[in-house]
Amino acid sequence: HAWGAAPAPAVPARAWVLIDQPSGKILASGNSDVQLPPASLTLMMTAYLLFNDLQSRKLALEDTLQVPLSAIKNEGAMIFLTPGEPVKVEVLLQGMLVHSASDATLTLVDAVARSEAAFVSRMNEEAVRLGMTRTRFTNATGLDAPGHLSTARDLAVLTRALQLRFPQFQHYFKQREFSHKGITFYSTNRLLWQDSSVDGFKTGRSARAGYCFIASALRGEQRRIAVILGAASDAKRFQGAQNLLNFAFEHYDSIKPYRAAQIVKNVKLYRGMRESVNLGFGQDFYLLVPKGAAPRVKAQIVTQQPIVAPVRKGQLLGRMRISLDGVILGEYPLLAMHDVEVAGLLGRGWDSIKLLFAK
Q1: pTM (two decimals)
Q2: Contacts of 279 (CB under 8 A, 6+ apart)
Q3: pLDDT in tens, 20-45
Q4: Closest to 163 measured CA to CA, from 11, 24, 330
Q5: Residues in CB range of 156: below 8 A, 6 or more apart
C-alpha cells in the first residue's frame, strides 16, 4: 500500500480475500479471482433470493410448506424431513443457514420456483446483477458439480450485499443452534463461540472444495468480512479467518466523512435560475485509512470552472482529491444535488457579461 500498511498474515488456503464492509474495499487477498467450488457457501445466494421473496411478500416466515419428494436427496447435510411433512418457512431457513441442510433448502426452493433448475437460473441472473463476474451456479445447495464455481472476491461481494440489503435477516447467520423434531443441530462456525465480535457468516466443505468459510465481524463502528476457500482443515479455515479479521481491525480505520446527498460544497453557477449549485456524493462516502490516521487526511475540491446552467441532478461537476501525508489516496466524483434550469433572457444576458470578466 502507498502508505506502507503492514503486510497481511499468510493464509493457508487456496484463495482468500479480506474486505472493509462499508466501502467494499479489498484490504488484502490471495488468488481472489481464481474459480473454485464454493460448497455450501452457495447457500448465501439461495438465501439472498429467498430474503428477496420474503421482503416482497411472495413468501412469509409463518407460511407452512409441504416437503416435496424432490427435497429428500441423500446428499449433503439433512434435518431429516419426510415427504409431505408440513414445516414452517422460518424452520426451513434455520435448517438451511445453521446446518446447511439440503432437504430444508430444496423445500424452500421448490416453494418459490417450482423447480431447482428455475431457481438456479435466478441465482445466475442475480450473480450477474451483483457483479459476481466469475461465478456460475448449477445447483441451489452447493453440491460439487462440474461448472459450479465462484471466487473469494465474488463471495465477498455477495456477503456484503446480503448484509447491506437484508439487515432484518442477519440473525440467522449468527444463530449457534436450532432444534427440529427433538434433534438439536449446531452451527459449524466455530468463531461464533470464540470471538464475540463475529456475527456470521457461513461454513462450507466438500471433497472438491475443501474447507471454506466466510466470517463477518463488527468491532465498534468497524465491520470487516473475510473469505477463505479451500483450506486443508477445519482448524486452518478458522485460524486463517481469525488472523485476517484481527489484522484488519488492528491496521485500518473505515471512516464516513460524508453521507449520501449531504452538501459538500456550494459552487457559483452562471446563467441559471439560481446563482449556485450544491455538490455532494451519490451514496455514503467511506474512506479507508491506516489506524489512527483519520485526523491527517486532507481533502481538496476541484471543479471545472465556469459551471453554466442547465444542470441536471447527478451531473458530474467536480472531484474531491483525498490525500494523506502528501500521498494522494484517490479522486472521487462530486455530483450536482439538484436540477437548475436556465434563467430568463435578462438574467442570462447579465451572466454572459459576467462570464467575460470571470475569465
Answers
A1: 0.89
A2: 263, 264, 265, 266, 267, 301, 303, 317, 318, 334, 335, 336, 337
A3: 999 999 999 999 999 999 999 999 99
A4: 24
A5: 17, 19, 26, 32, 214, 225, 227
